[in-house]
């Protein structure tokens, strides 16, 4: 049983076909990178996996741990262990990062029937995760992403991933807008998360994150389909030669 | 935005307003001592009571209030709890007379508050509260819900004193909270209005002397008809006022907040921040006036209001009003009406929150923006 099975996925946005029969299989313990030129459907794939409204699934299926999630709501997918790191993280004024994180962790606990972590235990965990991502303690008290720098927002996404411990993390261009130091911190966070019982799909335009998080598989998405798959060396080839040679 | 004026049943008060006034003047006085002069109250009423034709009552059908308003009131006690050193005396007590002489007419102009004149004639209970000079105790004054239909609270915060007033402001027909904060004094006023199937109006009128501070944080749920008039006059140099308001309305609830900040003296500072969420067929009104008189130099005034419409049928009328007669001032305002950010709802749902929980968290955060400090937010039940 694969962790994630995407079969013949066809998705329209505003009646325009974006994904045109996409197949992707991810096993536990693997990191997959999905690369591709602008407009190839990378972000659509990430968003459809997370269940974003506004995407019309014409055909195909998304299965996580043998459970069909194709029609599931975003929160049901989250409860099954799916996590999306946003390309453009959302600001929520008036709600502190800590309150938000606790609400998210409690929502997962409620679903699994586990007891909610005590406030003290949760704060300890959140602080440790923040420290791991080089975020100061007051970061947790601030409004969610409110006034955060681009790098802080992306690190906050990784912080959520570390606390929610998903089965499958889909990271949508988490490397965009990061300077080299922030990129390394984010990569360390991803590598710390990486384990035998979970999987990661990195959606990215550039190869540079893959220097720090080495993928098991690299897929190239062109015009709504996976045009080529390979090991991590494929990313270097793309970096050197661009996407043009795949058009033939 | 188009507004409907067909609220509920047709009132029996479609008669000319002079008849309304006559009906009121015919009511036998309550026998309670009001500190408002009955003759002055009668004169205001005789000149005419408000109706929906005038701007101040454009969005609130005051006839629906008149329907419940014209009953004779029996005296009843107000439920007030204050620390021992603070003087709380009934209006019948002769000790209130010098207070009336010293402070009467400072905080509001009776001619502009005809409902206060109705209150003056029908008063069912009134007290004066004096916080002595330089009083700095931690314990607050508490005013409870309910009590007589018409009530009047006069609060004097003497020079240098600092105190918190926690007011539960529902369950009456009309309540006046009239306040004078003397030089260097400070009043923190936490005001909470529970949801209620009632029609009620209130007036909070505040007079600030030199360097006095007044901080109002008001959390309102809706009622069948609820109208709050807040009038603050910065009469002394360097006075400061913050008015923070949050509201959450459902069903067919109606809330009308009319706030007027009058900058009379130089170097005044005022901030008004409002956040409201209106659902179903409810209606919220916010009229925020900043008046800066000639001579009120170096005034710094700002008003900001944001409203969320949770359904297509909800109504919000948000209007900042600036009247500036002095050039050496800073004054800004902003008003928005919008809907919940669906992108933020989606974000929270990807983190495992249900649609309902996501919206509730966003609403809570939005409202909390109106009340900056956590303690105030907690007391106003804006924090779960």
Provide an overview of this structure.
By secondary structure, chain A is α/β, with parallel strands linked by helices. Chain A has one domain: Rossmann fold, CATH 3.40.50.300. Chain A has seven helices and twelve strands. In chain A, strands 6-9-10-3-11-12 form a six-stranded mixed beta sheet, with helices on both faces. In chain A, helix 4 packs across helix 5 and helix 5 runs parallel beside helix 6. Chain A is globular. The relative contact order of chain A is 0.19. The model of chain A has no long low-confidence stretch (mean pLDDT 93). Chain B is 19% helix and 40% strand. The N terminus of chain B is likely disordered. Chain B is built from eight helices and 18 strands. In chain B, helix 2 packs across helix 5 and helix 6 packs across helix 7. Chain B is α/β, with parallel strands linked by helices. Chain B folds into two domains: 307 residues, no CATH class; 44 residues, no CATH class. In chain B, the strands form two sheets. A nine-stranded mixed beta sheet of chain B has the order 1-4-6-8-10-12-14-16-18, with helices on one face. Chain B has a nine-stranded mixed beta sheet with strand order 2-3-5-7-9-11-13-15-17, covered by helices on one side. Chains A and B meet through helix 2, strand 6, strand 7 and helix 3 of A and helix 6 and helix 7 of B.
Strand content of chain A: 25-35%
Strand content of chain B: 35-45%
At the first level of CATH, the class of chain A is Alpha Beta
The major pleated sheet of chain B works out as: 9 strands, mixed
Helix content of chain A: 25-40%
- What count of structural domains of chain A? 1
Low-confidence stretches of chain A: none
CATH superfamily of chain A: P-loop containing nucleotide triphosphate hydrolases
Any idea what the shape of chain B is? globular
Low-confidence stretches of chain B: 1-15
Number of strands of chain A: 12
- Count interface residues per chain for the largest interface: A-B, 30 and 24 residues
The number of distinct structural domains of chain B comes to: 2
Describe the largest sheet of chain A.
6 strands, mixed
Cα distance spanning the termini of chain A: 34 Å
Q: Give the number of helices of chain B.
A: 8
Rounded to the nearest angstrom, the radius of gyration of chain B is 21 Å
